[in-house]
Design brief:
CATH topology of the largest domain: Glutathione S-transferase Yfyf (Class Pi), Chain A, domain 2
Structural class: alpha+beta
Largest sheet: 4 strands, mixed
Helix content: 40-55%
Strand order of the largest sheet: 2-1-3-4
CATH architecture of the largest domain: Up-down Bundle
Order of helices and strands: EHEHEEHHHHHH
Strand content: 5-15%
Number of domains: 2
Number of strands: 4
Shape: globular
Distance between the termini: 24 Å
Low-confidence stretches: none
Radius of gyration: 17 Å
Length: 203
Protein backbone atom coordinates (compact mmCIF):
# COMPACT_ATOMS: atom_id res chain seq x y z
CA UNK A 1 0.00 0.00 0.00
CA UNK A 2 1.17 3.53 -0.77
CA UNK A 3 1.72 5.97 2.10
CA UNK A 4 0.64 9.57 1.67
CA UNK A 5 1.98 12.15 4.11
CA UNK A 6 -0.48 15.00 4.21
CA UNK A 7 -2.16 17.65 6.36
CA UNK A 8 -5.89 18.25 6.07
CA UNK A 9 -5.76 22.05 5.65
CA UNK A 10 -3.18 21.89 2.83
CA UNK A 11 -4.77 22.70 -0.55
CA UNK A 12 -2.12 20.61 -2.28
CA UNK A 13 -2.78 17.59 -0.09
CA UNK A 14 -6.51 17.99 -0.64
CA UNK A 15 -6.00 18.10 -4.38
CA UNK A 16 -4.15 14.78 -4.24
CA UNK A 17 -6.75 13.15 -1.98
CA UNK A 18 -9.67 14.30 -4.12
CA UNK A 19 -7.86 13.02 -7.22
CA UNK A 20 -7.42 9.60 -5.59
CA UNK A 21 -11.13 9.43 -4.79
CA UNK A 22 -12.16 10.57 -8.26
CA UNK A 23 -9.94 7.88 -9.80
CA UNK A 24 -11.19 5.24 -7.39
CA UNK A 25 -7.80 4.37 -5.91
CA UNK A 26 -8.23 5.77 -2.40
CA UNK A 27 -8.23 2.25 -0.95
CA UNK A 28 -4.66 1.81 -2.19
CA UNK A 29 -3.43 4.71 -0.06
CA UNK A 30 -2.57 4.87 3.62
CA UNK A 31 -2.97 8.56 4.55
CA UNK A 32 -0.69 9.68 7.38
CA UNK A 33 -1.20 13.09 8.95
CA UNK A 34 2.10 14.98 9.12
CA UNK A 35 2.69 18.42 10.58
CA UNK A 36 5.26 20.50 8.69
CA UNK A 37 6.18 24.18 8.55
CA UNK A 38 8.75 26.40 6.81
CA UNK A 39 10.67 26.71 10.08
CA UNK A 40 10.51 23.10 11.23
CA UNK A 41 10.58 19.65 9.76
CA UNK A 42 8.83 16.37 10.24
CA UNK A 43 11.48 13.62 10.41
CA UNK A 44 9.32 11.05 8.62
CA UNK A 45 8.55 13.41 5.76
CA UNK A 46 12.11 14.71 5.55
CA UNK A 47 13.49 11.18 5.30
CA UNK A 48 11.36 10.60 2.21
CA UNK A 49 11.42 14.09 0.73
CA UNK A 50 14.53 16.30 1.17
CA UNK A 51 12.25 19.35 0.85
CA UNK A 52 10.27 18.08 3.88
CA UNK A 53 7.02 19.21 2.28
CA UNK A 54 3.58 17.72 1.91
CA UNK A 55 2.07 16.00 0.14
CA UNK A 56 4.69 13.27 -0.23
CA UNK A 57 3.72 9.85 -1.56
CA UNK A 58 5.85 6.81 -0.73
CA UNK A 59 5.29 3.84 -3.01
CA UNK A 60 5.38 0.22 -1.90
CA UNK A 61 8.94 -0.10 -3.21
CA UNK A 62 10.03 2.85 -1.05
CA UNK A 63 10.29 5.39 -3.85
CA UNK A 64 8.97 8.82 -2.88
CA UNK A 65 7.02 11.06 -5.25
CA UNK A 66 6.42 14.79 -4.81
CA UNK A 67 4.98 17.46 -5.39
CA UNK A 68 1.20 17.30 -5.87
CA UNK A 69 1.41 17.55 -9.67
CA UNK A 70 3.81 14.61 -9.87
CA UNK A 71 1.65 12.55 -7.51
CA UNK A 72 -1.52 13.22 -9.52
CA UNK A 73 0.30 12.36 -12.73
CA UNK A 74 1.29 9.05 -11.14
CA UNK A 75 -2.28 8.40 -10.04
CA UNK A 76 -3.43 9.04 -13.61
CA UNK A 77 -1.05 6.31 -14.80
CA UNK A 78 -2.80 3.74 -12.59
CA UNK A 79 -6.27 4.02 -14.12
CA UNK A 80 -8.04 4.24 -17.46
CA UNK A 81 -9.65 7.54 -16.53
CA UNK A 82 -7.29 10.51 -16.74
CA UNK A 83 -7.73 13.80 -14.92
CA UNK A 84 -5.44 15.42 -17.50
CA UNK A 85 -6.32 15.09 -21.21
CA UNK A 86 -3.71 13.00 -22.97
CA UNK A 87 -3.03 15.38 -25.86
CA UNK A 88 -4.07 18.44 -27.80
CA UNK A 89 -5.05 21.96 -26.72
CA UNK A 90 -7.22 20.67 -23.86
CA UNK A 91 -4.16 19.11 -22.21
CA UNK A 92 -2.21 22.36 -22.18
CA UNK A 93 -5.24 24.32 -20.98
CA UNK A 94 -5.83 21.96 -18.06
CA UNK A 95 -2.15 21.89 -17.09
CA UNK A 96 -1.89 25.68 -17.27
CA UNK A 97 -5.04 26.15 -15.20
CA UNK A 98 -3.72 23.66 -12.66
CA UNK A 99 -0.49 25.68 -12.42
CA UNK A 100 -2.49 28.89 -11.96
CA UNK A 101 -4.66 27.33 -9.25
CA UNK A 102 -1.59 25.94 -7.50
CA UNK A 103 -0.01 29.40 -7.72
CA UNK A 104 -3.10 30.94 -6.13
CA UNK A 105 -2.95 28.37 -3.33
CA UNK A 106 0.78 28.96 -2.87
CA UNK A 107 0.28 32.74 -2.66
CA UNK A 108 -2.44 32.17 -0.05
CA UNK A 109 -0.10 29.98 1.98
CA UNK A 110 2.69 32.55 1.83
CA UNK A 111 0.33 35.28 2.98
CA UNK A 112 -0.83 33.04 5.81
CA UNK A 113 2.76 32.33 6.87
CA UNK A 114 3.54 36.03 6.88
CA UNK A 115 0.65 36.87 9.20
CA UNK A 116 0.62 33.77 11.39
CA UNK A 117 4.22 32.51 11.63
CA UNK A 118 6.53 35.47 11.18
CA UNK A 119 7.15 37.50 14.38
CA UNK A 120 5.04 40.64 14.28
CA UNK A 121 8.06 42.98 14.37
CA UNK A 122 9.44 41.34 11.22
CA UNK A 123 6.27 41.20 9.14
CA UNK A 124 6.30 42.83 5.69
CA UNK A 125 2.83 44.11 4.82
CA UNK A 126 3.76 44.82 1.18
CA UNK A 127 4.79 41.18 0.78
CA UNK A 128 1.47 39.97 2.12
CA UNK A 129 -0.41 42.44 -0.11
CA UNK A 130 1.56 41.27 -3.14
CA UNK A 131 0.66 37.66 -2.49
CA UNK A 132 -3.01 38.45 -2.05
CA UNK A 133 -2.95 40.47 -5.28
CA UNK A 134 -2.05 37.20 -7.04
CA UNK A 135 -5.03 35.57 -5.38
CA UNK A 136 -7.43 38.30 -6.51
CA UNK A 137 -6.14 38.27 -10.10
CA UNK A 138 -6.49 34.49 -10.23
CA UNK A 139 -10.02 34.63 -8.86
CA UNK A 140 -10.95 37.14 -11.58
CA UNK A 141 -9.35 35.00 -14.30
CA UNK A 142 -11.10 31.82 -13.15
CA UNK A 143 -14.40 33.66 -12.89
CA UNK A 144 -14.11 34.55 -16.57
CA UNK A 145 -13.84 30.89 -17.61
CA UNK A 146 -16.62 28.29 -17.61
CA UNK A 147 -16.15 25.46 -15.12
CA UNK A 148 -18.18 22.35 -14.36
CA UNK A 149 -18.23 20.12 -11.28
CA UNK A 150 -19.67 17.12 -13.12
CA UNK A 151 -18.19 13.72 -13.90
CA UNK A 152 -15.87 15.26 -16.50
CA UNK A 153 -13.89 16.82 -13.64
CA UNK A 154 -10.25 17.56 -14.50
CA UNK A 155 -7.26 18.16 -12.27
CA UNK A 156 -7.63 21.88 -13.05
CA UNK A 157 -11.14 21.84 -11.56
CA UNK A 158 -9.87 19.96 -8.51
CA UNK A 159 -6.96 22.37 -8.06
CA UNK A 160 -9.24 25.41 -8.33
CA UNK A 161 -11.64 23.90 -5.80
CA UNK A 162 -8.82 23.06 -3.41
CA UNK A 163 -7.51 26.62 -3.56
CA UNK A 164 -10.99 28.03 -2.95
CA UNK A 165 -11.48 25.66 -0.02
CA UNK A 166 -8.25 26.91 1.50
CA UNK A 167 -9.44 30.51 1.16
CA UNK A 168 -12.59 29.54 3.05
CA UNK A 169 -10.52 27.83 5.73
CA UNK A 170 -7.88 30.50 6.32
CA UNK A 171 -9.28 33.71 4.77
CA UNK A 172 -13.00 33.61 5.53
CA UNK A 173 -13.01 37.41 5.71
CA UNK A 174 -12.08 37.58 2.01
CA UNK A 175 -15.66 36.72 0.91
CA UNK A 176 -14.49 35.72 -2.58
CA UNK A 177 -18.02 34.61 -3.54
CA UNK A 178 -19.35 38.18 -3.52
CA UNK A 179 -17.67 39.22 -6.77
CA UNK A 180 -17.30 35.75 -8.30
CA UNK A 181 -20.76 34.18 -8.66
CA UNK A 182 -19.62 31.72 -11.30
CA UNK A 183 -16.90 30.35 -9.04
CA UNK A 184 -19.34 30.30 -6.14
CA UNK A 185 -21.78 28.15 -8.15
CA UNK A 186 -18.96 25.84 -9.24
CA UNK A 187 -17.73 25.42 -5.67
CA UNK A 188 -21.24 24.79 -4.35
CA UNK A 189 -21.72 21.99 -6.90
CA UNK A 190 -18.27 20.58 -6.19
CA UNK A 191 -19.07 20.44 -2.48
CA UNK A 192 -21.72 17.76 -3.14
CA UNK A 193 -19.30 15.34 -4.78
CA UNK A 194 -18.41 12.30 -2.63
CA UNK A 195 -14.70 12.96 -3.20
CA UNK A 196 -15.07 16.45 -1.77
CA UNK A 197 -17.11 15.37 1.24
CA UNK A 198 -14.66 12.55 2.06
CA UNK A 199 -11.65 14.91 2.07
CA UNK A 200 -13.18 17.80 4.02
CA UNK A 201 -10.48 18.85 6.55
CA UNK A 202 -13.18 19.98 8.98
CA UNK A 203 -14.88 16.56 9.10
Amino acid sequence: MMTLYYAGPSPFARKVLVAAHELGIQSQINPVVASVSPVGQNPAVASANPLAKIPTLVLENGQALFDSRVIVDYFDSLTDRCLVPESGPARWRVLTEQAQADGMADASLLARYESALRPEALRWSEWETGQMDKVHRSLDAFEASARSAGDDLTIADIAVGSALGYLDFRFAELDWRKDHPGLAAFYAALSYRPSWIATDPKS
